[in-house]
């Protein structure tokens, strides 16, 4: 693996049913890089992110990583009874984080709904809660599946700053996106 890479994936292939989603695909992510994944619905962006996160085995190829990752899928993963404070506290404990979950929730614009159950949160509040997990522990690789979904303009600006800060401090991001990227992408990969 290149010493300049957070991720080096080589010869990746994924077959779903009769369909080859991709084959012989090489993907790399360098330090400070923002790689945007593009492609129509069903082209395999989520599948590729899951493979890079080690959640799904590729049908061909290898993935090498030089660090830990955060993966954020389409679903926010917040239980119906769980408040933003409880959700972030749970993951802070699970990951041995020293971060203050309440401070992170506030930073994510969740001071008001801090103690509101997940089932009552708006779509954007749920997404902000899920995004707060990225700040609980410092992991160099962020794998984000349509992370701007449901965010208002302030939320989009906030996530853009988070991504910029993360990459400026040596991390890398791969994000599947539809539409314009609110941040300046280093590279794009179309499936
Ligand atoms: N476990 C599975 N079994 C069968 N087909 C699957 C499975 N997982 C994914 N697929 C199919 O693989 C294709 C790629 O799905 P994927 O979610 O990776 O696409 P995507 O590019 O992320 O799409 P979108 O832009 O709609 O989110 C789809 O046609 C999907 O139905």
Automatic annotation (TrEMBL):
The keyword Repeat appears for this protein: no
Domain ABC transporter: residue ranges: 7-191
SUPFAM superfamilies: P-loop containing nucleoside triphosphate hydrolases
UniProt cross-references to SMART domains, sorted A to Z: AAA
PROSITE patterns assigned to the protein according to its UniProt record, in alphabetical order: ABC_TRANSPORTER_2
Annotated keywords: ATP-binding, Cytochrome c-type biogenesis, Membrane, Nucleotide-binding, Translocase, Transport
Pfam families to which the protein is assigned, alphabetical: ABC_tran
Record-level Gene Ontology MF annotations: ATP binding
Keyword Magnesium tagged: no
Highest rank taxon of the organism: Bacteria
InterPro entries: AAA+_ATPase, ABC_transporter-like_ATP-bd, ABC_transptr_haem_export_CcmA, P-loop_NTPase
NCBIfam families the record matches: ccmA
Protein name (record): Cytochrome c biogenesis ATP-binding export protein CcmA
Organism per entry: Henriciella pelagia
UniProt gene name: ccmA
